[in-house]
Amino acid sequence: MNRPRITVIGSINMDLVTEADRRPGAGETILGKQFSTIPGGKGANQAVSAARLGGEVTMIGCVGEDAFGKELLNHLEAEGIIIDNVEPVTHSQTGIAAITLAEGDNSIIVVPGANDALTEEKILRYEKIIADSDAVLLQLEIPMPTVIRAAAMAHKHGVKVILNPAPFQKLPEELINDADVITPNEHEYEELMKNYSADPDTLKEKLVITKGGDGTVFYDKGKEIHVPGYQVDVTDTTGAGDSFNGALAVQMAKGASLEESIRYANAVGALSVTKFGAQSGMPKADDVHNFVTGSDPRICG
């Protein structure tokens, strides 16, 4: 069987991660426990997730011509991701995310940098790649006109469009119409519904709402369906949603039903939080198989 072809169009960042027992208050300085530089960016994270799960992944994005950019390109290539269409740009630094890990959760500030150079005009060059894909995976750490154009291209060619609306922005109706599946978390879902003026029931039919350890909700002909999650010991939640989205794209590209795809993606998301780092915690297909068949000890009672 051919590997599912996933094109990820999105951000490529270096994550600058600080661990501490708690977050400092305004004007306060505290001592942290550890600092790390880790490959990240929602687009790159989702590409790594899909590649580790067996997808033939093409990444479309931009990095700066700096040390972070070169390191990130080498990393993506080592993960088996096709990087021919990741463009180094001279006028901007590679994007970064400043992440604080404290009290069992994360806080993140993203500086897009070179990601903003992935313009709508550049996407026009990649229509054949998009058309030849089984699924296109999009997020919102690149310019919104680029996301809209990419979704429209994929929709035109009958390619599945999975849109992860993070970090949240108001979604234009044309983008909602071109997306097959939209994957907000609970906060993004609330914002999405507040900012949507058309028929909410029509929108809900496209939604896959992730709720962490509580699982995932989707709608089928108006009926809310809950797909249970997994209870695991949490080490780091960074990248859990990206792990989920990469897995969802792979399964949908294979032709699995939406419920089957979500069930698999829930397992991938659960596994990802048992290890440190957005990408380093992402499982491979064999890991997922062992987890769901009960031969992996990380499921809590």
UniProtKB/TrEMBL annotation:
Requires a divalent cation, most likely magnesium in vivo, as an electrophilic catalyst to aid phosphoryl group transfer. It is the chelate of the metal and the nucleotide that is the actual substrate. ATP binds at residues 185, 210-215, 241-242, 266. It is found in: Cytoplasm. K(+) binds at residues 236, 238, 272, 275, 277. The keyword Ion transport does not apply. It comes from the Bacteria. The active site is at residue 242. SUPFAM superfamilies: Ribokinase-like (SSF53613). Pfam families: PfkB (PF00294). Keywords: ATP-binding, Carbohydrate metabolism, Cytoplasm, Kinase, Magnesium, Metal-binding, Nucleotide-binding, Potassium, Transferase. Its cofactor is Mg(2+). Substrate binds at residues 13-15, 41-45, 141, 242. Its EC number is 2.7.1.15. Activated by a monovalent cation that binds near, but not in, the active site. The most likely occupant of the site in vivo is potassium. Ion binding induces a conformational change that may alter substrate affinity. The keyword Protein biosynthesis does not apply. Its main location: cytoplasm. GO terms for molecular function: ribokinase activity. Catalyzes the phosphorylation of ribose at O-5 in a reaction requiring ATP and magnesium. The resulting D-ribose-5-phosphate can then be used either for sythesis of nucleotides, histidine, and tryptophan, or as a component of the pentose phosphate pathway. Homodimer. Belongs to the carbohydrate kinase pfkB family. This is Ribokinase. It comes from Scopulibacillus cellulosilyticus.
